[in-house]
Amino acid sequence: MIDKRVAGPAEAVAGVKDGATVLVAGFGTVGIADDLLEALHEQGATNLTIVHNNAGNGDVGLARLINSGRVAKVICSYPRSGDYSAFLNAYRNKTLELELVPQGIISERMHAHAAGLGGFFSPVTAHTKLAEGKETREIDGVLHVFEKPLKGDVALLRAMKADRWGNLIYNQSARNFNPIMAMAADLSIVQVDEMVELGSMDPEAVVTPSIFIDRILVVGATS
Amino acid sequence: MTTTYKPLNRDQMAWRAAQDLQEGAYVNLGIGMPTRAASYVPDGREVIFHSENGILGLGPKPEPGTEDENLIDAGKNYTTLIKGGVFMHHADAFLMIRGKHLDVSLLGAFEVSEAGDLANWTTEDPSFPPGVGGAMDLAVGAKEIRVIMDHTDKNGKPRILNKCRLPLTAPGCVKRIYTNLAVIDVTAQGLFVREMVEGMTLEKLQELTEPKLQLANDWRALTPPAMAA
After folding, report:
1. End-to-end CA distance of chain A
2. CB-CB neighbors (< 8 A) of B72 in chain A
3. Looking at chain A, which residue has its C-alpha nearest residue B117?
4. Min distance B98 CA to chain A CA atoms (Å)
5. Is B168 in Cβ contact with A104 (below 8 Å)?
6. Number of CB pairs, chain A paired with chain B, less than 8 A apart
7. In the sheet that B182-187 helps form, which strands lie side by side, from edge to edge?
8. What is the interface pTM, i.e. ipTM, of the complex?
9. Which pLDDT tens digit goes with each residue over B63-80?
10. What residues 78-107 of chain B have any CB closer than 8 A to a CB of chain A?
11. What's the CA angle centered on A94, arms A88 and A96, to 5 degrees?
12. Hey, is the C-beta of B118 within 8 angstroms of any chain A C-beta?
């Protein structure tokens, strides 16, 4: 019988390696797998590349990993959000690298990897600083910039409900990057508020089909 | 002869931009002043607002005490969903932005050039990390890009320029500029002043604008209702 639930936070993030690329879902403070990020802090993996829209808040979750010197690189669209002092200190001390990517390009690069594509051409960033050094091509008279696929070794996700296979539904704007990151990592781990019986979710309403999910940590609606 | 005129306040600027949002339009509002335009859509017009974090059918601010921690807008403020509103994931939210599905994107700006080049993502302050968010996606994707900004910077220097000095967000994308002094269209024939605040002259407006302005034949006075600043 398939049951992707794990016993606890340590089991959820077991095996994450040093140097891993970790996709961290969420936008602002919404839809973030806070418990999985804390578990990753306990687990100890270091030299991480983090893919996230922002760059951590306060001294919890991603910010705590940064403050502990565990993050080598952040790929994000907008680091200056909320209390981003952890990122700012590391950035000013040059202890981490920033790759700035437009928000829609981050999500589409992950989508491309998930879809088995070798990248795509996009008009976003054409004629700007963010296109410097990238391959370009004129398509129907419009300059396009080549964007490579973006793959995660691990994705840390947050959903509202799961069944034991890992079918997921989300909570309103907490959906954000979660379904895309779920598809784009080798190991997709989700923190959920609630487990439901297999077959009880409306098949028309399931957002993430179970094939993309590897481990489920049930934490309840803690925050 | 001295000219006397009164610039619009921020709510009046947002009001003016909102008057151009047509029935049935799908519209993305940028963070900051553009967001205020949602409050000034004329009664009886149904306009559907999109938010980059995966909302189509964004509603007004929630009443105090009814905030939902899982329902925020692109500016990370609590928001609401109107009847018929839906959620989607980030890739679909940006597919709507990039794929010319939105009718209008109303953005803030630091600078706009005569050719409609937009600079709104970085002031290149070396003490802070850069952030681009969804600005570059928004600037290439909507059917029409409109900008709402103060006519001059805090030192009174023009922000409508022959060429942008700050790094570009996207070239040649802006079609209409709403400022605190005027409404200006960017066309292949140059910049046309559609509206100016009362008491403003083309000569005075030209002093505050780098590229050459032309007065549209059917130009009007820009007369928003009185609003608390």
Report:
1. 31
2. 27-28, 30, 173
3. A127
4. 8
5. no
6. 137
7. B81-87, B55-58, B48-51, B26-29, B104-107, B144-148, B174-178, B182-187, B190-197, B213-222
8. 0.95
9. 999 999 999 999 999 999
10. 79, 81, 87-91, 93-95, 97-98
11. 75
12. no
Question: Active-site residue numbers of B?
Answer: 52
CATH topology for B10-222 is Glutaconate Coenzyme A-transferase (3.40.1080)
For residue B174, which residues of chain A lie inside 8 Å, CB to CB?
Answer: none
Kindly state the tokens that stand for B167.
């790094």
| Tens digits of residue pLDDT in A42-54 | 999 999 999 999 9
Domain edges within chain B: 10-222
* B69 in reach of chain A (CB within 8 A): yes
Contact with chain A for residue B54, Cβ under 8 A: yes
* Coil, strand or helix at B17: helix
pLDDT at A221 over 80: no
The CATH number for A17-100+151-196+204-217, chosen from 3.40.30.10, 3.40.1080.10, 3.40.50.150, 3.40.50.2300, is 3.40.1080.10
Whole-angstrom distance, CA of residue B220 vs CA of residue B76: 37
- Close Cβ partners of A141 (under 8 Å, ≥ 6 residues apart): none
* Contacting residues of A for B76, CB less than 8 Å apart: 27-30, 81-82
Average of per-residue pLDDT across A88-95: 95
| Mean pLDDT across chain A | 96
pLDDT in tens, B120-160: 999 998 888 999 999 999 999 999 999 999 999 999 999 99
Ranges of residues in chain B with a pLDDT under 50 are none
**CB–CB of B85/B56 below 8 Å?**
yes
Q: Which amino acid is at A201?
A: M
d(CA B226, CA A77): 38
Domain boundaries defined on chain A: 17-100+151-196+204-217
Contacts of B137 in chain A (CB under 8 A): 102-105, 124
